[in-house]
Write a structure and sequence with these properties.
GO terms for molecular function: catalytic activity; magnesium ion binding. The protein is of the alpha/beta class and 289 residues long. Helices cover 46% and strands 16% of the residues. The two termini are 31 Å apart.
């Protein structure tokens, strides 16, 4: 079983796609304030560049400089001409996770694990069948994260674009339930209009309210907005501290109920408050951005 990262504590606010075939982009990524990077060998790499991209990415990762960012490599599907070679190449790379596209069932994870062994696996959730099988996918012992592929999902569902994403809510909800049930990371899909800061901020807020751990991004200009949206706010941090203080005080005095701002504070609220403070501390001390 792969060791799971607790998404309640380890931030995944911003997860940026970087083409695995572009040395300049790979170099720039070392200085970007992102929590994780998806080094892409799939959609961002043309067919005639696939082989070169593997070597380019392997060299970049060997040079280092990406820590403390989580390093994720998205391979091509195993049903393509490049998937097998990609999976084998990842085992020679300094990568934390291998990301498999278009996962439809736990069998897809098994097929990849037959090549990558006990390497942690993330699943791109972007097909109707994947939505229906989200629970079994999330429960796979090597699965530690899920990434929503909302563009592909919208295409498969033949939906119309809406800012509120209502046509995608069933799929998003099924994957969220599955991820939370198994304690795995779940990252929201991309926002395509990278120059639309207001639209991105609104979709980030929606994703955060729904329970996503972070947002996949397609451009560095989107990083700051995602980091802000998925980080504890100063108000949340201050409230968390007061909740813990009030709860511990009534416990020490043998009283029954703690109240903060007219609301009862129970043990479950204190657990959430401690998670908020732990995540805020990690953002400040470990990530530093």
């Amino acid at each position: 079983m792969a060791e799971k990262i607790d998404p309640r504590l380890r931030p995944f606010r911003s997860v940026l796609y970087i083409p695995g075939c572009k040395p300049r982009a790979l170099d720039k990524a070392r200085s970007l304030a992102v929590d994780a990077i998806i080094f892409d060998l799939e959609d961002a790499v043309s067919a005639d560049e696939k082989d070169n991209a593997r070597e380019t990415l392997k060299e970049a990762l060997a040079q280092g400089g990406y820590d403390p960012r989580v390093k994720i490599v998205r391979i091509n599907g195993l049903d393509t001409d490049w998937g097998q070679a990609d999976a084998e190449a990842v085992m020679q790379m300094d990568a934390d996770v291998v990301l498999l596209p278009k996962v439809s069932s736990a069998d897809d994870i098994d097929a990849l694990a037959a090549i990558t062994g006990d390497k942690p696996i993330w699943a791109m959730m972007e097909t109707p069948r994947g939505m229906l099988n989200a629970a079994e996918i999330a429960a796979h012992p090597l699965l530690t994260g899920m990434v929503m592929g909302t563009n592909d999902l919208a295409k498969e569902l033949q939906v119309r674009y809406r800012p509120d994403r209502m046509p995608l809510m069933t799929g998003l909800g099924l994957c969220l339930l599955a991820a939370k049930a198994e304690g795995v990371v779940i990252i929201d899909g991309v926002y395509n209009a990278f120059k639309d800061e207001e639209g991105l901020a609104a979709e980030c807020e929606q994703g955060r309210d729904m329970g996503f751990d972070g947002k996949t991004l397609i451009h560095p200009a989107q990083i700051e907005i995602a980091n802000k949206a998925f980080a504890p706010t100063p108000e949340e941090i201050e409230l968390a501290r007061r909740q813990i203080e009030a709860f511990e005080k009534v416990q020490a005095e043998g009283q029954g109920v703690a109240v903060v701002d007219g609301r009862i504070v129970e043990n479950l609220h204190v657990e959430t408050a401690r998670e908020i403070l732990a995540k805020a501390a990690m953002i400040e001390s470990v990530l530093g951005f």
